[in-house]
Amino acid sequence: MNAPSALASAYIAFRDDLIDDGLLVPMGSDGLFGRGAVFESIVTALDTAIMTLGADNNPTILRFPPVISRSLIERTDYLKSFPDLLGSVHSFSGSDRDHLALIATAESGGDWAQAFTSTDVVLCPAACYPLYPMSSGQTVPDSGRIYDVVGTCFRREPSIDPARMQSFRQHEQVFIGGESEAMAFRNRWLERGSGLLRQLGLPVEAVIANDPFFGRVGKMLASSQRDQALKWEMVVPICSEEWPTAIASTNAHQDHFGAPFDIRRPNGSAAHSACIGFGLERCTLALLRHHGLDPHLWPSEVRAILWS
Amino acid sequence: MNAPSALASAYIAFRDDLIDDGLLVPMGSDGLFGRGAVFESIVTALDTAIMTLGADNNPTILRFPPVISRSLIERTDYLKSFPDLLGSVHSFSGSDRDHLALIATAESGGDWAQAFTSTDVVLCPAACYPLYPMSSGQTVPDSGRIYDVVGTCFRREPSIDPARMQSFRQHEQVFIGGESEAMAFRNRWLERGSGLLRQLGLPVEAVIANDPFFGRVGKMLASSQRDQALKWEMVVPICSEEWPTAIASTNAHQDHFGAPFDIRRPNGSAAHSACIGFGLERCTLALLRHHGLDPHLWPSEVRAILWS
Predict the structure, then answer these.
(1) pLDDT, tens digit, for every residue of B101-160?
(2) Which residues of B touch A116 (CB under 8 A)?
(3) Between the N and C ends of chain A, which has fewer C-beta atoms within 10 Å?
(4) Model ipTM?
(5) pLDDT digits over B77-95, tens only?
(6) Are A270 and A162 contained in the same domain?
């Protein structure tokens, strides 16, 4: 499993098994899949289990569309940190004559989308982003505001690894409030999240991680994040023991969102935030890998959690 | 309600009511909304009711992500018919140096997305699009293949009308097969769909409709579609009696998809297709408008259908 070609073979073999069984449907681009009824029933069950697990926090429940306003992303440092992963939505606003030229370009096999210009929306890169503007300019209690959110995220990283989709769903619980409270939230969820995944029969390990920051400066950002142990991933082998897949993560953002969105603590300083995020497709793939492609044959204790 | 300003006031008043009650959350761009727990519980219940209604057709159940491959859209005539509605996804693939320039442009308030180039994906404009490549090059029986699909669609038409979202979900049942069978499917669903919506207490009317074809040529396409009565909409007043909103539609596509995707009938001719599509957010808004903003107070016969 060391050589890249062995890893690539493992990706393709698992992907083909999933497709053969109708769990996933290929869509002509790497990292894009339709989902069959069985795959989707697992996602729905996981979604409910995660919501139930966090219900004692009495979160505000919100669901968001896959696009967000461009100005939202401009208020964060997403463009500095992950420019290569962002999907920007462009559209056509030309005349009848421009339209004829557009069609001629398309018919000659040219890049017709060059005639498209940027809109005021982009694809949402992480489920929690739309939350921060909601508290902008406000003071939140140190005990925090807590949200349960699900969103479809887009990251431009086409891959043959079925666990690295371009479009995927995240179920997050998010805290916005005091500093020590944010850290306690993250720590508690690291335990809780790992606990749920272990109960589901997954050999999960918690490891210190970093976000995939872009370029040369990104390397420094990544090591600073690791040195402070801000982000932890819950990893499980899916296609490789050596390169396990992060299926959930908990992250202490410090005042990374509180500061730019002007969310304040009662003492006037910027609010801290933290989140736990479950990758719904990745958790589903891990379950299918470890318990087999037919959920009816999964261990009864796993089925009891998901379909009790 | 005749003057545009009265209509605009009605849109804004309803939108503000929905926001005040936490049913929708504004996201800083017209036609983009987060959804609260109550709104989402109605969407989920509708989704289940629609699936149950069509279960006797034993459809193949598929769920799709909000992005599809660019080549798929190029095989259809979407660019000819609706260029202005399409969302094209662009990304950044530059160097460290390009990245510095990108950030400088963003910091000066410039159009940084000009440095983004078209990817191999676009936003999905209608839930059924990903289905047609699945049967490409195949012969389907005249009795047809039937699919139950849900997808998040994007149409670039920012509006203050809360029922005209840029990002919204469609639940469709789709038929691909013989010509008369496709027409029978459409006719049966026109009755069934209207029936369900009437049972839900909505004063729905079925009307001949046309798609919003672009430009001068589009006007001819629209009248041809109307002359043949191919598309029917189920309309309900939401913000206006005079301008009711289409909350569902049935459409006979003829061989509009069968021909370009090379889907054949046993006699060798191109397959026909037809669909019923429910706009999940629009149906939800119609219910909220007609029965009030608190589903606990809705008529018991409506609640029984949705939450029995």
Answers:
(1) 999 999 999 999 999 999 999 999 999 999 999 999 999 999 999 999 999 999 999 999
(2) 88, 90, 118
(3) C
(4) 0.97
(5) 999 999 999 999 999 999 9
(6) yes
List pLDDT tens digits, range A213-251: 999 989 999 999 999 999 999 999 999 999 999 999 999
Do B61 and B162 reside in the same domain of the chain? yes
The verdict on B218 and B273 lying in the same domain is: yes
Q: Give the residue from A103, A123, A143 where a domain finishes.
A: A123
Taking CB atoms and an 8 Å cutoff, what residues of chain A touch B154? 66-67, 89
User: Of A64, A72, A166, which has the smallest distance from its Cβ to B121's Cβ?
Assistant: A166
Q: Are residues A60 and A145 in the same domain?
A: yes
List chain A residues with CB under 8 Å of B25: 62, 130, 134
**In angstroms, what separates the C-alpha of B61 from chain A's closest C-alpha?**
5
Are residues A207 and A297 both part of a single domain?
yes
Q: In this structure, are B103 and B232 located in the same domain?
A: no
Tens of pLDDT, residue by residue over B21-31, are 999 999 999 99
> Cβ contacts (< 8 Å) between A103 and chain B: which residues?
79-80
The total number of structural domains that make up chain A: 2
Question: B 256-275 residues with CB below 8 A of A?
Answer: none
Q: Do A119 and A95 lie in a common domain?
A: yes
What string of pLDDT tens digits covers the 308 residues of chain B? 455 799 999 999 999 999 999 999 999 999 999 999 999 999 999 999 999 999 999 999 999 999 999 999 999 999 999 999 999 999 999 999 999 999 999 999 999 999 999 999 999 999 999 999 999 999 999 999 999 999 999 999 999 999 999 999 999 999 999 999 999 999 999 999 999 999 999 999 999 999 999 999 899 999 999 999 999 999 999 999 999 999 999 999 999 999 999 999 999 999 999 999 999 999 999 999 999 999 999 999 999 999 98
Domain boundary residue, one of B123, B142, B169: B123
Residue B248 domain boundaries: 5-87+125-307
DSSP codes of every residue in chain B: --SHHHHHHHHHHHHHHHHHTTSEEE-SSTT-EEEEHHHHHHHHHHHHHHHHHTGGG-PEEEE--SEEEHHHHHHTTHHHH-GGG--EEEE----HHHHHHHHHHHHTT--GGGG-EEEEEEE-SSTTTTHHHHTTT-B--TT-EEEEEEEEEE-----S-TTS-SEEEEEEEEEEE-HHHHHHHHHHHHHHHHHHHHHTT---EEEEE-----HHHHHHHHHHHHHTT-EEEEEE-SS-SSS-EEEEEEEEEETTTTTTTT-B-TTSSBPEEEEEEEEHHHHHHHHHHHH-S-GGGS-HHHHHHHH-
* B108 and B234 inside one domain: no
CATH code at A211? Answer: 3.30.930.10
Give the per-residue pLDDT at B164.
97
Q: Across the interface, which of B25, B62, B96 has its CB nearest the CB of A215?
A: B96
Q: Compute the nearest-CA separation of B291 from chain A (Å).
A: 23
The answer to whether B123 contacts chain A (CB < 8 Å) is yes
- At residue B1, what is the residue type? M
Q: What is the model's pTM?
A: 0.97
